[in-house]
Amino acid sequence: MTARRERILYALQQIYALLGAPLAWIVQICTCEALAAQACYPAQDPLAHVELHALSAYIGAVSLVCLAVALCGLTAAWQGWHALRRGDGTNPDRRAGRFLFCVAILSSPMFVLGLLVTAMAALIVSPCKPW
């Protein structure tokens, strides 16, 4: 593999490690809210029953895909941090990379927890009932 290609893959790994879990959570929230809004409020007034009968299945599927993306981002952060930990720590690029991967390792579990809690809330609480 060429050095340029390695640098590009390394940069993509850092970006995915940092943004995979937060973006997965945002996608989950936006998609599930849009599905619930369309199923319960297709017009001005709310419906008494969900119009989309497979709403829970769609919300569950979106949540599982987003959870997989977030966990893969956490795995990328762990692998990147572990690979840099084995290398020379005096290089400033390695120190910066270790810091970014460490931030991703610390923040990703919070977003994974947010994904799980959001999925449970969406599947337990009926989206068509008033709060």
Distance between the termini: 56 Å
Nearest-integer average pLDDT: 87
How many β strands by DSSP?
Answer: 0
- Helical fraction: over 70%
The secondary-structure element order is HHH
What percentage of the residues does DSSP assign to strands (E)? under 5%
- Give the assembly state of these chains: single chain
Main β-sheet description = none
Low-confidence stretches: none
Structural class designation: mainly alpha
- Overall 3D geometry? elongated
- C-alpha Rg, in Å? 19 Å
Counted by DSSP, the helix tally is 3
Overview of the structural elements:
With 131 residues, the protein is an all-alpha fold. It has three helices and no strands. The protein has helices spanning 3-40, 55-86, 92-124. It is elongated. The relative contact order is 0.19. The mean pLDDT is 87.
How would you summarize this macromolecular structure in one to three sentences?
With 131 residues, the chain is mainly alpha-helical. It is built from three helices and no strands.
Characteristic terms for this protein:
131 residues; single chain; 0% strand; mainly alpha; elongated
Per-chain topology:
Elements (H helix, E strand, L loop, with lengths): L2 H38 L14 H32 L5 H33 L7
Helix pairs in contact: 1-2, 1-3, 2-3
